[in-house]
Design a protein that fits this description.
- It is a single chain.
- By secondary structure, this protein is mainly alpha-helical.
- It has one domain.
- It is about 45% helix and about 10% strand.
- The chain has four helices and three strands, in the order βαβααβα.
- Helix 1 packs parallel to helix 3, helix 1 packs parallel to helix 4 and helix 3 packs parallel to helix 4.
Length: about 130
């Protein structure tokens, strides 16, 4: 496996986020799963573990704007393998998210556009292919 993603939505997790965030993650999950032809339940999770091959790819080409969802598409384009494993996440103890309802919609549109643009980019060549 080249990348392992910690998913908050598989296993025994009882994690609940805001309604807008759940809608956004669900949309990203469906779109990205269709693109990579693999079920991805938590494309916005930043809890990841990568092997040497994936790290070499990231050193050469790592998405700047929305790395978590875009990396899933990048790995697929480079024929690298990924899987999700369950992780636990606690609820926020204090403070509020900076992502409001309006920002959520804006973020969803921008991320989806970035993902669709990524689909038309030529994937980078890995070391063995150069």
């Amino acid at each position: 496996m080249d990348l392992v993603i910690g998913s908050r939505f598989i296993g025994d997790s009882e994690f609940k986020s805001s309604m807008m965030r759940r809608v956004g993650i669900s949309i990203f999950s469906h779109v990205i799963s269709m693109i990579v032809r693999q079920k991805i339940t938590d494309p916005t999770s930043g809890f990841r573990a990568a092997n040497r091959k994936a790290i070499q790819l990231f050193a050469f080409d790592y998405p700047q704007d929305y790395p978590e969802p875009e990396v899933v598409v990048l790995l697929h384009q480079c024929d690298l393998k990924m899987e999700e494993v369950p992780v636990g996440m606690s609820e926020r103890y204090s403070g509020e998210s900076s992502i409001t309802k309006i920002r959520s919609i804006y973020y969803m549109v921008k991320v989806l556009l970035a993902i669709f643009v990524d689909c038309f980019k030529k994937p980078p060549l890995l070391e063995k292919e150069r």
